[in-house]
Design brief:
There is one protein chain. With 459 residues, the protein is mainly alpha-helical. The relative contact order is 0.03. Among the domains are: 102 residues, Alpha Horseshoe (Serine Threonine Protein Phosphatase 5, Tetratricopeptide repeat); 92 residues, Alpha Horseshoe (Serine Threonine Protein Phosphatase 5, Tetratricopeptide repeat), CATH 1.25.40. The protein has 28 helices and no strands.
Amino acid sequence: MHFELNNDGSMSIKKFESMLKSNEVGFFDSEEFEQIIEHYLEEGKMTLARKAIQLGLSQHPASVEVRLLQAEVFVFDNDYERAHEILNDLYELQPHNAEIYIQKANIFSKTDEHLKAVDLLLQALDLTPDQADVYNLMGMEYLFIEDYQNAKANFIKCLELDDTDYSALYNIIYCFDFLKENKKAIDFLNHYLNTNPYSEVAWHQVGKQYFDLKIYDKALAAFEFAIISDELFVGAYLEKGKVLEKLGKFNEAIENYQITLELDDPTSFAYLRLGKCYEKLGANDLAIKYYKNTVKEDPLLDKGWIAIVDFYLKQLNYQKALSYIEKATEIDSENALYWIKYAKLNKRLNFFEEAENGYKNAIELGNYELETWLQRSDILLQLGELESVITNLKEGMDFYPENAELEYRLAGAFLKTGDSIKGQFHLQNAFKNDPDFIIILEELYQDIFLSNDVQSIIS
């Protein structure tokens, strides 16, 4: 069978794969090998890419392009020494080949030597006709070292050379956002829109900047222009819906969220916002319907589960709220937010052992808020576990070493166990830091509060 080379290399790829199946060696010119290797690299089929490189070099050992692709694979495999050897050899042959500098820069980037990578890319810039790609690569190097000003400058140069490069545009706005330069971002986008007036992406980004600045009327106008530019732009409808919510126009927001469900596959975000809007309008049946759709669409979205729990809390249906937060913890037991909700609900229902377990799990998962330590210690006290109260409070004081609320509780616990030395030590510290919080001791340890030891300190 005879295969002709075509623009996308598909015939070459079919010929190569047919050859592998038959174990017969066919001949390919060097350009065909480049297409085949690049195809497999883009597809992430590294084994096939290596086979193509091996055969390519056996047929065309002097091919610079195939050897450059071999260096790229070595970089992928973290074999930087062999990649450097190939690139150094190629440099001797073609010192003005920009791709050699780009590949060397890639190695320095992989080894976190980003400024060295930039130096090489600057040299490549003078040698390549594809300067936009090089500016983009330099922008990424500066992003790696969090130099957002230089990153932004390079992405802007990239966009100036190719105003259809939306990835560069997004990166520019990312830099503006990180630098908290919303107004400068708007000025930049408006300048871009002067020459690209129907860029839905630019209008969308303008709207997001105004939204962050809480200038909702201008944000709304920008999102409407984005929709005019592309009436199928789902993101613009979602953002427009958010603005309308802020303006209290919940029915209009619902219309926009519903459009996104018609244009594309439903998203948990759209379902959640629909639920919020219907709840604001008092349409509780529709609200809970969309909240349930939210967690059905994305069971790991904590905002969905929390919305359901909060909905039932507002209805004073604590048992229903508890059943849903229990479902949430079963699906994602590593979410500290769920355990806090679980603890608070169980405490409200006087299920103290379950509440204590919820706060314990939240702490173990990294929730170190002061309120968590305080609530857990008070519940442990109600359960009569004084030693656990002391342990919990001491751990809390590692994070809040001079907090009077913790110190008063710790003083009461030590005095309750008969350790008057430690008790008086913490009581004196607490009283010195904030005498008004002595009420904590009075409420939680009334018998201790009335003792002579305590009264002598606070009088």
